[in-house]
Specification:
This protein is of the alpha/beta class. The protein folds into two domains: 169 residues, Peroxisomal Thiolase, Chain A, domain 1 (3-Layer(aba) Sandwich); 157 residues, Thiolase/Chalcone synthase (Peroxisomal Thiolase, Chain A, domain 1, 3-Layer(aba) Sandwich). The chain contains eleven helices and 13 strands. Strands 1-7-6-4-5 form a five-stranded mixed β-sheet, sandwiched between helices. A four-stranded mixed β-sheet has the order 8-13-12-11, sandwiched between helices. Strands 2-3 form a two-stranded antiparallel ribbon. It is globular and about 55 Å long. Bound molecules: acetyl coenzyme *A. Acetyl coenzyme *A (ACO) binds next to helix 2, helix 6 and helix 8.
Length: 340
C-alpha cells in the first residue's frame, strides 16, 4: 500500500430492470387512489416489480455482468465488491458475497453497505477511497433494491412510490481526463424514524405480533422526507461543486435520486439548473432506492445525454437520513443498445 492518492473513475456501467411493468392503474384497483393523483404528486406512471423468487443478488448480478462487460473487465480482475442495498437476499450473509460467488469473482473481498437511496454514491465514495489509497485497483459497486418486498400494498401513501431495479459500475484508477472530482457524504440520524422498517432487527425481532402489526413494512413520514430531500439535494450538490471549484452552469447533466419529480424540480430550481440539464426517468421506474442513480447514469449514457468529457453531478438522499453527492467527469464512450 502506498500513501499517494490516485483519482478514481467509472470505467463500466450497467443496469438490470425486471420485465414486469406495474402501472398506476393497478393501484386504482387495490387502494383508494388515482393515476392522476400519483402522476401529479410524484411524476410516476409505472414501475417494475421483480417476479416471486427473484432476489437482490439475482438483479444485482445481472447489472454487475452488464457493467463488467461495458468495462471489458473479467470477474477475476475484481478486487472488491460493494453492494449498496437495504433489501438484501437475507439479513446475512452479505448480498455482495452471494454476487461474488455468482460472478466467479474469486479474488474479490465483498461487503454490503446500507445508506438507503444514497447507497450507490456512498459505495462510489468507498470504492474511490480504496483506489485512492492504493489498496485496490478494481472495485465493482452495485446499487440494488427490491423494495416491493417490504412495501405494504394496503398503504396508499407508500405503495405507489417504489419499484425494483439494479445498477452497477466498475471503478478503477483514472487519468486526468476523467474521474471523480469531489464527493460529499452526510447523515442525520435524528431523522431515523422518518423512514424505516421497524421490525426484523435486533431492536424488534420478527414475531407473529410484529407481522400482525405490519411492522415488517416500510413506514415513511412523506412530507418530512420531502422537505429534507429538497433542502439536502441543493446543499449537497452545491458543496460538491464548491469542493472541485465548479459552478452549476459548468455542469452538463444533473442526475438526482429518482424519488419524486416535485423534489427533483424544486432542487433543480434551487440550484438554478435548467430542466434540460436534469435527467429524469422516475416516470418509468418509480423510486428504485439504491439502484436509481446507476440506472439513470446507464440510461443517460445510452441515450447520448452523458458523453465522454461531460461533467455531471449525482445526488442521493434517503433513509438514515443520509445524503451523498459526487461531481464526476465522464470518461466513457456512448454505447448502443440497452443493457437492461
Ligand atoms: N392517492 C391518493 N391520496 C393519497 C395517496 C395516494 N396514493 N397517498 C397519500 N394520499 C393522501 C394523504 O392521505 C393525504 O390525505 P389527507 O390530507 O386526507 O390526510 C393527502 O394525500 C396529502 O398527503 P401528503 O403526504 O401531504 O402528500 P404529499 O404531497 O406530501 O405527497 C408523497 C406524498 C408523494 C409521499 C411525498 O411526500 C413524497 O414524495 N415524499 C418523499 C418520499 C421520498 O422521496 N422518499 C425517498 C427516500 S426512500 C428510501 O431511502 C428508501
Amino acid at each position: 500500500m502506498n500513501n499517494q492518492v490516485r483519482r478514481a473513475g467509472i470505467v463500466g456501467i450497467g443496469s438490470a430492470i425486471p420485465e414486469q411493468v406495474c402501472t398506476n392503474q393497478y393501484f386504482e384497483k387495490i387502494v383508494d387512489t388515482t393515476d392522476e393523483w400519483i402522476f401529479t404528486r410524484t411524476g410516476i406512471k409505472e414501475r417494475r416489480i421483480a417476479p416471486a423468487g427473484e432476489a437482490a443478488s439475482d438483479l444485482g448480478a445481472r447489472a454487475a455482468i452488464s457493467a463488467l462487460d461495458s468495462a471489458g473487465t473479467s470477474p477475476e480482475e475484481i478486487d472488491l465488491i460493494i453492494c449498496a442495498t437495504i433489501s438484501g437476499d437475507m439479513p446475512f450473509p452479505a448480498t455482495a458475497s452471494v454476487i461474488q460467488d455468482r460472478l466467479g469473482a474469486s479474488k474479490a473481498a465483498a461487503f454490503d453497505l446500507a445508506a438507503g437511496c444514497s447507497g450507490f454514491v456512498y459505495a462510489l465514495a468507498s470504492a474511490a477511497s480504496f483506489i485512492g489509497s492504493g489498496v485496490y485497483d478494481k472495485v465493482l459497486i452495485i446499487g440494488v433494491d427490491l423494495l416491493s418486498r417490504m412495501t405494504n400494498y394496503a398503504d396508499r401513501s407508500t405503495c405507489v412510490l417504489f419499484g425494483d431495479g439494479a445498477g452497477a459500475a466498475v471503478v478503477a484508477p483514472a487519468d486526468d481526463s476523467h474521474g471523480i472530482l469531489s464527493i460529499v457524504l452526510g447523515s442525520d440520524g435524528s431523522g431515523a424514524d422518518l423512514l424505516k422498517v421497524e421490525a426484523g432487527g435486533s431492536r424488534l425481532p420478527t414475531t407473529a405480533d410484529t407481522v400482525q402489526a405490519q411492522k415488517h413494512y416500510i413506514q415513511m413520514a412523506g412530507s418530512e422526507v420531502f422537505k429534507f430531500a429538497v433542502r439536502v439535494i441543493g446543499d449537497a450538490a452545491s458543496e460538491a461543486l464548491e469542493k472541485c471549484g465548479l459552478s452549476p452552469d459548468e455542469v452538463d447533466l444533473f442526475i438526482p435520486h429518482q424519488a419524486n419529480i416535485r423534489i427533483i424540480d424544486s432542487a433543480a430550481r434551487r440550484l438554478k439548473i435548467p430542466t434540460e440539464k436534469v435527467f429524469v426517468n422516475v416516470q418509468k421506474y418509480g423510486n428504485t432506492s439504491a439502484a436509481s442513480i446507476p440506472i439513470a447514469i446507464d440510461e443517460a449514457v445510452q441515450e447520448g445525454r452523458l458523453k465522454k468529457g461531460d461533467t455531471f453531478v449525482a445526488v442521493g438522499f434517503g433513509a438514515g437520513l443520509t445524503w451523498a453527492a459526487s461531481v464526476i467527469k465522464w470518461g466513457m464512450d456512448s454505447r448502443d443498445g440497452s443493457t437492461h
